[in-house]
Design brief:
The chain is an alpha/beta fold. Helices cover 41% and strands 14% of the residues. Helix 2 (24-37) crosses helix 4, helix 7 (150-162) packs parallel to helix 15 (346-357) and helix 10 runs parallel beside helix 11. It is globular.
Length: 477
């Protein structure tokens, strides 16, 4: 299906043309290419006519004509009889999807609600291009930065200071993603047989990373209404763990946010038991309702280790994360890190510097997009599946739905038959169960989310789906 986009919308997305040293048509073509590459102008979109765009931008007809020609030459557009100029991507779907992780990904009729990770927001392509321009001076060096590029450590430290948590660059280690950071912590601070308290339900890949050293995972309940801190404190006293892993900001999968008072209470309980908190802040920047977030957990627990991630707040393809640690702990973590890898990719680190420096503009546009998609998903659930219950998340990437009957695994199997891939509650359970729950992310476009809920409603009402199950899919986010 070919979409259309108005000239006024294109002009808004492109923004003012600066008329710098480049010819104006090249500046326009470059702006359009980035918009197409980032998906803000989707592939298979019919562009406005040259005359319409000329008027909307206030430039000459020749400028638009040559810009469109440049897009066609670089394979970001093509001419179609009766449709004018239509956008495209140089790579076909088979080149950009992964059949190992998502064997259904090349089927255009399948809606993937298994992976709670959105496409790249505006600004990612530009950050990479800036990074490529800055790369040559680094090529004369070996390229290994076990603690991370100094510039990146500095800007990451500044983000914590901005949130009221003074942090020096020496407290920051850049890792190859948040899970790699969790593995470094496990390597440095646990031995086989040590106990680690983890939330239940919880992000499953994190528990696998923390179990890297054969640690024993001890579940602590996170109810649909929130954390049971009294029960958690008792578990901590009885288990005598080395670490406690928690997600206080838009907890994955429940979407809950721990209040400041709860953070202080939990931090005090861990301090009494001499347990090191490992705080996952991957979703912290995704407050979708414009609300102020509670202070970082480490404000209440100076000995805490905080895990950050570029994947959720920017883009998963960056494959970068970081650790914020008490400075005396850094040598042990560096030694552990060197046994796992020698550093994160340099080009991505340079790109992330630019994204963090421009984070507020990038976040604003990304939050607006995700908030709109969240509302579409929740409205569709209210309308088509009114007997399902959930707390409306104020941020993050997914909603944790409670089903009236414990049929999550059968539902997921039937939904897959109808063209929707979703994750049953058992995927997030430390010790099994949670058949009353499914997690549904809002990271797909609005039309796909509406279609997905329609199919889920069909799957839920199909009495023949009761006995069917399907193997759990790989969950990466």
């Amino acid at each position: 299906m070919t979409r259309t986009i108005s000239a006024s919308r294109v002009a808004t997305l492109v923004g003012p043309l600066s008329g710098d040293e480049r010819p104006l048509y090249l500046e326009l073509a470059e702006g359009l290419r980035l918009l197409i590459g980032e998906g803000r102008i989707p592939a298979a979109t019919r562009m406005p006519s040259e005359r319409e765009l000329t008027t909307a931008l206030g430039v000459s007809r020749t400028t638009v004509t040559r810009a469109y020609a440049e897009l066609r030459d670089r394979e970001y557009a093509e001419s179609r009889r009766g449709s004018g100029t239509v956008t495209r991507l140089p790579l076909h779907a088979t080149s950009v999807t992964d059949r190992i992780f998502a064997p259904w990904s090349q089927d255009p009729d399948v809606v993937d609600l298994n992976c709670a990770a959105p496409s790249a927001p505006a600004g990612v392509a530009a950050a990479y291009e800036a990074a490529v321009a800055e790369l040559p001076p680094y090529l004369s060096n070996h390229g290994y930065y076990p603690a991370g590029l100094a510039r990146l450590r500095e800007v990451v430290a500044e983000t914590y200071a901005e949130r009221g948590l003074p942090t020096s660059p020496e407290q920051i280690m850049i890792t190859s993603g948040a899970l790699a950071g969790a593995a470094v912590v496990a390597q440095a601070l646990t031995s086989p047989g040590d106990r680690v308290v983890v939330e239940d339900p919880v992000y499953p890949n994190a528990t696998q990373a923390l179990g890297h050293r054969s640690a024993r995972l001890v579940p602590a309940p996170v109810d649909p209404d929130g954390w049971d801190l009294a029960a958690t404190a008792a578990i901590v006293r009885q288990a005598a763990p080395r670490l406690a892993y928690l997600i206080p900001d838009f907890q994955n999968p429940t979407g809950l946010v721990m209040s400041d008072d709860q953070r202080a209470e939990y931090a005090a309980a861990l301090k009494r038991a001499r347990v090191t908190p490992v705080v996952d802040e991957a979703h912290q920047a995704l407050a979708l309702d414009g609300q102020a977030m509670p202070a970082p957990f480490a404000t209440h627990s100076p000995g805490a280790i905080t895990i950050g991630s570029a994947s959720k707040q920017f883009w998963g393809g960056l494959r970068l994360g970081w650790l914020r640690v008490p400075e005396p702990m850094m040598p042990a973590l560096l030694q552990a890190r060197m046994s796992l890898d020698l550093g994160a990719p340099l080009l991505e680190q340079l790109a992330l510097v630019h994204l963090i420096e421009n984070r507020h503009a990038v976040w604003a546009a990304n939050r607006e997009r995700l908030g709109r998609q969240r509302d579409v998903l929740l409205d569709a659930l209210d309308t088509q599946l009114p007997d399902w219950t959930f707390h409306r998340p104020t941020g993050g990437l997914a909603v944790w739905c409670r089903l009236p009957r414990p049929r999550a695994s059968a539902l997921v199997a039937e939904a897959e038959r109808l063209g929707v891939i979703a994750a049953a509650g058992r995927v997030f359970a430390v010790e099994g169960g949670l058949e009353h729950f499914v997690r549904l992310p809002w990271t797909r476009p609005a039309d796909e989310l509406e279609l997905a809920v329609t199919r889920l409603a069909q799957a839920w009402t199909n009495p023949g789906a009761v006995a069917r199950t399907t193997p759990d899919r790989l969950t990466v986010a």
